[in-house]
Amino acid sequence: MFFRENGQFKSTYRADMQLLPIVQDRWFMLGVIALAFLAVPFVATDYLFLSIINPFLILTLAAIGLNLLVGYCGQISIGHAAFMAWGAYAAYNLVQRVPMLNFLVVLVLAGLIAALVGMFFGIPSLRIKGLYLAVATLAAQFFTDWIFARVKWFTNYAHSGSVSTAPVTLFDWTLDTPRDKYLFLLGVLIVFTLIAKNLTRGHLGRAWMATRDMDVAAEVIGIRPVYAKLTAFGVSSFYCGVAGALWGFLQLGSWEPLAFDLNLSFSLLFMIIIGGMGSILGSYLGAAFIVVLPIALNQIPRKIGVPLSTAMAANVEFMIFGSLIVLFLVLEPHGLARLWAIGKEKLRLWPFPH
Amino acid sequence: MSIPRYAPVAILGVLLAAGLVAPLATGETAPGFWVEVLIGGLMTGVLYSLVALGFVLIFKASGVFNFAQGAMVLFAALAVARLAERMPVWAAVLATVAIMVMLAFIVERIVLRPLVNQEGVVLLMATLGITFFLNGFGQAVWGSDIYEINLGIPREPMMVLGKVFEGGVLVNRDDIAAALAAVLLVGALAVFFRRTATGRALRAVADDHQAAQSIGIPLNRIWVIVWSVAGIVAIVGGVIWGGKLGVQFSISQVALKALPVVILGGFESVPGAIVGGLIIGVGEKMAEVFLAPPLIKAFDLAGGGIENWFAYVLALLFLLVRPEGLFGERRIDRV
Amino acid sequence: MASIPVQAEPRATVEHEAPASRHRIGPVILAVEHVSLRFGGVKAISDVSFEVREHEVLAIIGPNGAGKSSMLNVINGVYQPQQGTIRFRDRTFDLMTPHRAASMGIARTFQNLALFKGMTVVDNILTGRNLRMKAGILAQALRIGPAEREEIRHREAVERIIDFLEIQAHRKTPVGRLPYGLQKRVDLGRALASEPDVLLLDEPMAGMNVEEKQDMCRFVLDVNEQYGTTIVLIEHDMSVVMDISDRVVVLDYGRKIGDGTPDEVRHDKAVIDAYLGTTH
After folding, report:
1. Which of A83, B67, C43, C257 would staple A237 via disulfide (CB 3.0–4.6 Å)?
2. What is the ipTM of this complex?
3. CB–CB of B120 and A124 under 8 A?
């Protein structure tokens, strides 16, 4: 590495247990955040914000949510877009019906509603193990799809079932340009990343991981499976609910009933498999990858003079995702995040690996 | 749990019976129409059963929750449809059998062998990868339009039971052919499992992986065989489905209905897959035709479509009270 | 071959500390009463009763499949027996659950390692203290004052266990990467972290070499002597059993066939028959 942690000894447990124990890592992280707040807004174009950066931020939030459930607690879900839908429609209804609420309050309430729904669909996880849960979460997906397509109350009797939103105003700040949305999303994501980090290194996170690694042993040392699994479903759905509300209000603006369908659920799952299960950093890397790949598939062949038809690009995308999933599961089950960690470890020893 | 294990079975039975009889009893539905709905449900059920069958075969032999069974059905149907444009249908089917066997080899070599002894969830996600790859690959190679499979069966429906019901009952000839094909396939599989050495080896593996391995049954070969058989089951399902509705991408999605079917029937039960498929096929059709209209009226819904989730919610209820399904065995976790 | 082959392999001898420092064996703390357990048609345990006294080291021995591990699983509620009760500190339970057992102070290690493989040594042992950690979900999310202080307090307790088990160097290593013998220690550490009154050890020395066995014996006896923890252990190595236990219960085919001091059991006819076959 370009720095070494030699000579940094921890004399208190507080120092040993902090988020980034190495001084240089802390400076690096501060630098990244400063760059994101101070430089990116002036460099990036509206196109970049709209088609890459903002979707990346929102989907990262959703991926962190799914990762808390699948990567940390070991409970599979292939219907997590459903909880994004609950968040989005909850926020829509709150804004429509209780207009005086601050958008931040709306976000939290939307997350809480999604969390309740998530915990409800998580109840089968108490009776059944991993695989069967796949079907329970699919039930959540299809039932949710149907509810929002058919029950008119949820869409406020909007014609054709699609809903549209006005620009979000926070106190006096109207988020109407892509750059404003970016700054707000960035702030939200940083807060939620910190919360996820704190939860996973507290006793709740240990209860989740213990349940994931060896459920019987976890029970024997006094971790209630009910508590571990339902909190994981709840927190995970909370994250996805907030992400769904942000996706609806700040990315889509207006959306059709099937904006949160099974394909989005699969995308979320792919983000954490490719990025790294049980890793917050992995959620970032995976989301970035999934957001950028389709655009790259569209742009690169055109640049080199062999443009793909839309259908063919979609097919190639399917094939690449499919092969990458198998490849990562076989070669590096901990995803891009582990590759990053290995690279860092190698650099730490470089240039004297022995 | 204090709820007796047979309770959900009994409740399901009563509900099914009530749901079946109620429309007739109220007198609002013509008996002939009711029978047509029933037959339509049974036909869809046959298709669900076929997909579920492939699923159960793989789960029994390798413990893999094969999410890709639906994608295999689509892939097989696409192959048959496009090959049949250049050769007779029977030749196209044979060529597709060869393709599916090759696919089984590749899956075993690239996916299953490196992931042996991994947790079920990891294997499930791997089959999700296979699903995506197959969907992309199939449409890239064979095209992504809607294709026809013409099996040479006359299209016009037959009128049967004209003497029993007023107006008779309309039945499609291809539906009858499909049901016959499904019965033949299940019969052939039964013979294969009971009478051949390979079939016995497969059953041994399904019973106990390690014991089977220790008496010299090569697991890798068994996996190839069982994925090939599942591939052939997928062809039959794909051809029937494609012959009826045309070959298109939605097949892969509708095939997801096989998951609730296996929950209902029990993960390791072949009869469970068949019975479960028929129950869900009939149940969702009946629910859509007879239950949706009053629901729409009562709650002012924007249309029906409860068949989209009926199967899953039924499966969810089963998971809560009887996770082993109708025919499955209860498992004991040893520590 | 008339008695159990005590000297057949090198003895894992342990130097006892002066008896004065030992806690006096007290009244009955845990009693298993007429327990029967079936899996489908298979009888794992038939009508077994025995008592465990406070501060003692009780060994459960018996051939493979005798129902020893099942017995431990009944005591801490992993299996629910069809008949019988568990009495713990004058409270009688028809239905024991793992959570209730844990919160009353019964901890447990496993025959086949059941550690949390993806977590570090510190985190594994910290899970043993989860029952004692009360910070709410919001406090943890924001890691505000009380939540952090609680983490630090328990971390200190865990460090004492790490020192005791001499695994300081491996603190931050994911346990999956540790060698087997050390993993067994972490398993013990996780159980100790809950500061149990009764510690159930399922073959703590299985698969270890002589040095590792000696270390493990030392840890077990130290726990018993320093904290007065009551210990119930399953062990196959007779020399270990005879050396460290105060009493021995013998199971065979799910029945109790012997119960007494190591010396009594060693010369019991039924026990010898069970181990060597009745043709003797």
Report:
1. A83
2. 0.85
3. no
